[in-house]
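Lay summary. Proteins are chains of building blocks that fold into shapes, and those shapes determine what they do. In this project we predict the shape from the chain. Here is one chain we studied, written as its sequence of building blocks.
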Amino acid sequence: MLGLASLQHGRKWIARVFSSSPAIQALFEEKIALGKTLPKLEDNQTKLEMYALFKQATEGPCTQPKPGMFDFVGKAKWEAWTKLGSLSQDDAKKKYCDFIDALAAKSTTATITTALSTKAAASPLQTTAANGVVKLSWSAAGLDALTVNELSAAFQSAASKSDVKVIVLEPPTAFSSDNESSTKTLVETMAAFPKPIVTIVPAAASGLTVAVVSLSDFVFAHARATFEIPLGSAFPTPDALFNKMRPIHANTLLYLGEKITADTAQRYGLVSRVFTDDFQAQTTIWTERLAQNGHVNGGEWTRHRI
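And here is the predicted shape, written in a compact code that computers can read:
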């Protein structure tokens, strides 16, 4: 025959199983499955809280003897479970479900934040703004749609802000585009910009980089810089080049593939200033000086007539 203790234990187990409503039990099992898909918990306190709620939900209040003093893990689990006292199994299940939902929400937020950070880090355009000058730089060799879209958005933003007086471009040494639409969009964006455009050329400039230079109102180049348009490459702004240089000089770039130095480019009218020492400091001084000139936004820039 079963002893009284066994009968009482059986009755308690039966009561626990049938006291939980089907809806709560189904939700509880769903959250158990969800919990298994979440990232591994690193915080011990969170692990203990989750363990205690699960034990209370499935077995009820803790009736196990306290582990020995040297069983640190077992003792921590026992204490976490015991703290729940006489909390009913249904209430424990509800708390467990809420607990898992909170973990899932936290995990989702972390995932979204990581994705946004990755996207931001992957942005092709670097933008800085100070003292009325917005500086845009990018390093991608290909003029893709994302780069053009970000450049266009930056130009539009700068055009609408009264505190922005000058936009400065630092394009890559050489970049190209297989997309005629992207090239056209960049050219139209620069041509329509109502404020001065400064382009910084620290080294060699080739292909579309020279096109950007030809559309700029001011070009500051390092003495080591060179300029060339490789033979056979598409060049979208020949009119802008002819507008800056005498045709005989522009022709040598466009049709003979001549490479010219910064000093030569300055003599031809393609470059405004050539610097040697303290190049970055000098370009910063001159662009800020331009931004402080109250008349820079009052006139028509040469590219507007192209």
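What the prediction tells us: The mean pLDDT is 82.
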